[in-house]
Design brief:
- The chain contains 7 helices and 7 strands; from the N terminus they run H-H-E-H-E-H-H-E-H-E-H-E-E-E.
- The protein has 193 residues and is of the alpha/beta class.
- The chain has a 7-stranded mixed sheet, sandwiched between helices.
- It is globular.
- It binds S-adenosylmethionine.
- S-adenosylmethionine binds next to helix 3 and strand 2.
- The site of S-adenosylmethionine (SAM) has 21 residues, from helix 3 and strand 2.
């Protein structure tokens, strides 16, 4: 139901907000089933960071599955959309007697490349970039983020890049998980070496 709620409120697929297209959560749900099957997501244990989280919809989606669901967004007005959407979603889920997202979300305003932001994440969640299990981005800045994570993420951390197709870039310091990627034709997975 959460996927349907947000997929009815897609942003940027047409018009001037293309730079902040939003993940199709129904597609991500299909990807997630595979990721759990492959033990890439460990329900209740994995920690997740969305680099460029916009209105936090991917964070809300993953809050059910992750121990911590963290996002960083540079555009404050975009992040400001989180509260009203979360309230409306909660109302919708309660009316239908559905489980609400967990209170394990932490969203930060700032540049995901900025060490000051990493420090704030660490102070609030206790996690530094080298502790996260899973990183996610929807294409924007994917190379710059890969470069940063090649330095800061732990060995075995997974970098997920949404919005790709069969042409998948390679990032130094990461191994493309070829047997799985692109999951559902859209999500490429990379393992930190
Ligand atoms: C394509 S949207 C994806 C939003 C969300 N992750 C999703 O999948 O629905 C990318 C977002 O990344 C943000 N962004 C781009 N560069 C960033 C940076 N260096 N730090 C934080 N946010 C950034 C943009 O403002 C935009 O909202």
């Amino acid at each position: 139901m959460l996927a349907a709620f947000f997929d009815a409120r897609q942003v940027g697929n047409v018009g001037p907000l293309g730079f902040r297209r939003s993940t199709d959560l129904s597609t991500l749900l299909a990807c997630t089933e595979r990721l759990i099957g492959e033990q890439i997501i460990m329900p209740g244990r994995s920690t997740f960071l969305d680099l460029g989280c916009a209105d936090g919809r991917v964070n809300l989606f993953f809050s059910y599955l992750m121990r911590l669901s963290v996002g960083v967004e540079m555009e404050e007005w975009t992040l400001d959309e989180y509260d009203p959407l979360e309230k409306e979603l909660t109302k919708t889920l309660m009316t239908s007697g559905m489980t609400l997202p967990k209170k394990n979300l932490h969203l930060f305003h700032g540049d995901a490349m900025d060490e000051g932001v990493h420090d704030r994440i660490s102070q609030e969640t206790g996690l530094s970039l080298s502790d996260f299990d899973l990183f996610y981005t929807y294409l924007m800045m994917h190379e710059e983020f890969a470069h940063m994570l090649a330095e800061k993420a732990k060995k075995g951390a997974i970098y997920m890049v949404y919005g790709l197709n069969h042409i998948m870039p390679r990032y130094p310091g990461f191994r493309l998980m070829k047997a799985l990627s692109p999951v559902e034709g859209v999500l490429a997975l990379y393992e930190k070496e």
